[in-house]
Amino acid sequence: MILKGKVHKFGDDINTDDIISAKYLVSTDPKELGSHCMEAIAADFVKKVSIGDIIVAGNNFGCGSSREHAPLAIKGCGICAVLAKSFAAIFFRNAINIGLPFLESMDVDKINEGDMLEINLASGLIKNITQNQEYKTEGFPGFLQELVEKGGLMNYVKEHSQQGINGR
Length: 168
Known about the structure:
The chain is α/β, with parallel strands linked by helices and about 170 residues long. The protein has one domain: Aconitase, domain 4, CATH 3.20.19. The protein has helices spanning about 15-20, 30-35, 45-50, 70-75, 90-100, 140-150, 155-165, and strands spanning about 1-10, 55, 80-85, 100-105, 115-120, 125-130, 135.
C-alpha cells in the first residue's frame, strides 16, 4: 500500500486533548471529530488538510488519555497516516483499531511542513518528493496493512466472521 500526501508538522508530546478537545467527545462520528482536529493547537489545521495528507511529529505523539476519539479525529479530517519519532502506547492500539497507519522514524526532523511524502507501508520506504530524499523505517506488517485496507479492526472482524458463516 502506497500513501502520498502533504506534510503537516507538529512537535513533541502532542496529546489526545491537543488532537481533539474533550468538549467534542460527545460524538464518535469521524467527520464531526475531524472538523475539530488539532484546533486547540492549530486553529486553521482542518482548513489546510486535503484528503490523503500526512501528519509528521516528534516524540510521544498521542500521549494522554486513552480515547479512541483522537485517531478517529485524525482519520476523519482526511489524514491518511501519522509519522513520528515515537508514539504513546495507547495511541498505537487505538490507531490500529480504526485502521490509521502510523510509522516511527528518527528522520522526521529532516521533513518540513508542506513537503510531499510517499510512504510504502509494506517496505517502510519514505520518499520525500519535495526534497528528493529517502528515509527507511520498519514496514507495516501484512496483517496491519489488511486492517488499514478494511478500515479498522471491527470491519476486519465483521468481514472475516461473514466469510466464516458463508464458508461453512
